[in-house]
Write a structure and sequence with these properties.
Elements lengths: L1 E5 L4 E7 L5 E6 L6 E7 L7 E2 L8 E2 L4 H8 L8 H7 L3 E6 L4 E7 L3 H13 L5 H19 L2 H13 L13 H4 L4 H11 L5 E7 L3 H11 L25 E6 L5 E7 L7 H19 L4 H8 L8 E7 L2 E9 L3 H12 L3 H4 L2 H18 L3 H12 L8 H7 L2 H11 L5 E8 L3
Parallel strand pairs: 3-9, 10-14
Antiparallel strand pairs: 1-2, 2-3, 4-8, 4-9, 5-6, 7-8, 11-13, 11-14, 12-13
Helix pairs in contact: 1-7, 3-8, 9-13, 9-16
């Protein structure tokens, strides 16, 4: 067992590994009644081209297979997994994003029994030709629902505009056509490759015993005949330039909605360097267009934007982007005003006093977040797959300097790597 401590925030994380290579992390929270467990694999919607475990040739799987597999893991031959968790007072859920799939539950009682159930059902898929076929109709309805959502379409249209080849531009759930080509054999190949202990992590937070946690996991963990220590994922080389400058679409919406995206070109690394880039970019966005900025308040007073306006940066090793968006009756004017803003001298729009204020606010927000087990668990997993421990986040944020935001602004916020997506109301 290892112990990671941060004396500044008076938090620690305990670590151990099972015989199969599954990494277990636990943050004790004395006095908390709620407990949280999240079991995650480093596998998401972008992982659709890889070499399956035990094979030599590259396999390209249908779009949406990671999300499909998430659905199917809840399938059991005779019982309903949701009912089993519910009977023990737990709320269970799961999600798939571009780079990870996670299964989680929260409970106040029967935590160890729920933990055993979580480990068991994630590690023992039950796939048949019949239940795979049945699921296609369910997921097809989900896909159609998202296709009818203007907020969803404006986002994925922007990704389509920014990215030429990278699969991040593909809808996480795939398409109705792609999921109809999924079968039991492809699901098992994907599962056996990516749901391997060395590619997964289990994080737990609450007032619990780590010895008891490890006892439960070691008992519940299944035997693996073929442990995969290295997964070969295949990605096409993404060019630096954007795919299209603008994408417009008409849908049922009361007023136009828009997303402006800045595609990242500073890629290829993980760990502290990558997480620092995320922090710095989001500080810049808060200074530039946050609710306290001059830009926001000028456009708001002119009626060009409303309170839905905002922005954030997100990314991983091989992709990244800043997105700014909201509702506006004149999205082109908002776009032009933003282009004017980023063309000004950096010392005019990124003032050191604003940097210090936003940084202090972010430090406070992170400290406040440590009171929430949901905040801790979800951020732990996301940072873990970036090769970074959440317990070191505050120290890294504290080290960010004004010069960091100046350098990042000049590199990232350029008119060469920007795209615009607009959803307009249907013409009557």
């Amino acid at each position: 067992m290892k112990e990671f401590n941060n004396h500044q925030i008076k938090e620690k994380i305990l670590f151990s590994k099972t015989k199969n290579g599954l990494n277990i992390y636990f943050m004790p929270k004395k006095g908390y009644t709620k407990k949280y467990a999240i079991f995650s694999t480093n596998y998401g919607s972008i992982d659709n081209k890889f070499i399956p475990i035990g094979e030599k040739d590259i396999l390209k799987v249908p779009e949406g297979i990671a999300h499909f597999l998430e659905h199917k893991l809840f399938e059991e031959p005779k019982v309903n997994i949701f009912d089993k968790f519910s009977k023990m007072g737990a709320d269970v859920n799961a999600f798939t994003n571009f780079t990870q799939t996670s299964y989680l539950f929260t409970s106040t009682d029967y935590f160890y029994e729920n933990l055993e159930l979580l480990v068991n059902f994630v590690q023992n898929p039950y796939l048949t030709d019949e239940n795979v076929e049945k699921e296609k109709g369910i997921i097809a309805q989900e896909i159609k629902m998202y296709e009818d959502s203007p907020g969803w379409r404006v986002y994925f249209n922007l990704l389509e505009a920014m990215y030429v080849d990278h699969p991040v531009k593909i809808d996480i759930a795939g398409t109705v056509e792609s999921i109809n080509t999924i079968n039991k054999e492809l699901l098992y190949k994907s599962y056996n490759t990516f749901y391997n202990p060395s590619n997964m992590v289990l994080f737990i937070v609450g007032d619990l015993s780590f010895d008891r946690i490890m006892e439960v996991i070691n008992k519940a963990e299944k035997e693996y005949g073929n442990l995969n220590k290295s997964i070969e994922r295949i990605f096409d080389i993404e060019p630096n330039g954007i795919n299209k400058k603008i994408i417009e679409e008409r849908m049922f919406t009361a007023s136009p909605i828009f997303h402006i995206g800045f595609k990242d070109t500073d890629l290829g690394y993980n760990g502290e360097k990558k997480v620092k880039k995320d922090i710095v970019t989001n500080i810049i966005l808060d200074i530039l267009i946050g609710a306290s900025s001059s830009f926001y308040n000028e456009l708001y007073d002119e009626g060009l934007i409303d309170t839905s306006f905002g922005g954030y940066y997100t990314g991983k090793k091989l992709y990244g982007h800043s997105i700014i968006g909201g509702q506006s009756n004149n999205p082109e004017e908002v776009y032009e005003r933003l282009m004017e803003l980023i063309s000004k001298p950096v010392n005019e729009i990124l003032k050191e006093k604003d940097f210090n204020r936003i940084k202090s606010k972010d430090l406070g927000s992170f400290l406040l977040g440590l009171n929430s087990i949901e905040f801790i668990a979800n951020n732990f997993t996301d940072l873990y797959f970036d090769d970074f421990l959440i317990i070191d986040y505050l120290d890294l944020l504290s080290k960010v300097q004004y010069e960091d935001i100046v350098n990042r602004f000049n590199e990232h916020f350029t008119q060469e790597n920007v795209a615009l997506s607009i959803i307009r109301p249907l013409e009557v």
